[in-house]
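Translate sequence into structure tokens.
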Amino acid sequence: ESAATLAIAAARQALDRSGLAPADIACCVCATLSAPDATPSVACQVQAALGLPENRPALDINAACSGFLYGMAVARGMLTTLGGQYALVIGCEALSRLMDPTDRSTCVLFGDGAGAAIFRLADTPFALTLGARG
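Result follows.
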């Protein structure tokens, strides 16, 4: 499976469990460093597969292990500035195809998987500290 197929499955499950309609999603942010193609983005593939509105933002971000946290911050910023109540945030990777299965120093750390959550913009204070060391 690719990062896109994993992301679509996770996003579909999150949307189904939320009870929301695709039209309720104001933006889709996908954190991945293993997108199968340069374009379309994984987020745009999710948008199309789930029938999310085409007049709403959908984008990928690459921030490695902290990508989902950055995705939350980006989604909150979009909801705050562009309007909307709900954001779909996805973290997905398909790294097994890039790893050497005989190199135990890396192959045990990286794999394939996806998770998705739908966040609602709230009036309560939001605090998230982000940084980078690399």
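Note: The first helix runs from residue 3 to 18.
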